[in-house]
Amino acid sequence: MKNIKIQILTVLFCILSMGMQSQNTLSLSQAIEMGLQNNYDLKVTRNNENIASINNNWGNTGALPTVSFSAGLSENLNYNDNEDYRTESLSPQVSLNWLLFDGFSARITKKRFEELENLSKGNTVILVENTIQDIISAYNNCIVQQELVKVYDELMSLSEDRYNRELSGKEIGVSTTYESLLAKTSWLSDKSTYLQQKVSYENSIRTLNFILGIKDNTMWQLTSEIKSDLPDYTLSDLSNKLISNNTTLKNQYINQTLLSKETALAKSNYLPTISLNGGVSQTNRNTYFSKTSANDTETNFSDVNVGLNISYTIFNGGQRKRSVQIAKIEEESGLVEIDQMKHSLQNQLMQIFSTYEVQKELVVLANEQEEAAKLNMDMAEEKLKNGSIDSFDFRAIQINYLNAAIQKLNATYNVIESQTALTRITGGIVDEY
């Protein structure tokens, strides 16, 4: 019975351990989803988008009427030689004010609110794109740092095996103290580098957690790999996508629309305004005499008023003309800024594209160099065992392999960064990820 309990507890422990491990696994898609939900900047930007949506209302344009209610209650005491009396008055009133026409400014203002909401949504999209790009960069950096840990661990193991062989050879007289000390120095150096790299990897995970908005110190088991497929692009296709899909450029177009609305608002001041006002009021007045109640009186009367006002500014010192002139100049400046942004984005695109094309070739070279260095180190290890090469040559070959492995990882990381930047600047990063 006791053995059965132990077996059950063992199974439960294994299940719990597997559950904890599965909870700590993180793929790139999961990281992006988590980051878009928890990112601090995105939370603020989404709130700003909600504010813009709330402001996009006809009630903020002045096009809807204003209805108000007021009431007054008063009591007067009169002291006379013949007879005192008291008067109570109650006067409720409902008023209406409605701007019927204001030179189409209400309609223009409503259009501005719609464009401001679109601009707020565009700002959210930009931040989403930036967040996705940051998550991809941070996640891939974690993979690179993790792979470097494996490389340094492999070198440390080789150095430790070599040191142990030197110690064994020293005991039987086939190795010298100098050789064992040299092997020990290499092993300790590789172990130190390995420990430092573990810290770098852990710090990269912490950086990823911050971008994802995770407050606890979760050490993820990364399940995604750095993409190995490197698609071929043409600059003309990328340029067309940039002009049609780049979110920053789309936002600039919205800004230009807002500037045109400002010009329309300035022109609307040349038109008259028509307003309607009206109201209904009723007054109830009661008078009470202190001696003769028969003289008490009660008076009720109502009042209804309706008015239509038309106003037009004949001259205000040329303020309307100057406002229109300034709005037109700002609209022209907006067009210049659009051209500047197009030029800047095209220039960035060409730079990123050229870098990507070169980095694709560097990845191929780095892979070949790493494979050759790995093969050379494996062969050198056998030569070291049979005495064909000395410790200095073997150490140089080890360092050469280390540099080749680091170069391969960096080249792979850099080309993915460039590819992500291309996808980002052409407006396709949200759809792709």
TrEMBL record:
The keyword Ligase does not apply. Keywords: Cell outer membrane, Membrane, Signal, Transmembrane, Transmembrane beta strand, Transport. Residues 1-22 form the signal peptide. It is found in: Cell outer membrane. It comes from the Bacteria. SUPFAM superfamilies: Outer membrane efflux proteins (OEP). GO terms for cellular component: cell outer membrane; efflux pump complex. It holds the Pfam family OEP. One of its GO terms (molecular function) is efflux transmembrane transporter activity. Its main location: membrane. Belongs to the outer membrane factor (OMF) (TC 1.B.17) family. PANTHER family: OUTER MEMBRANE PROTEIN TOLC. This is TolC family protein.
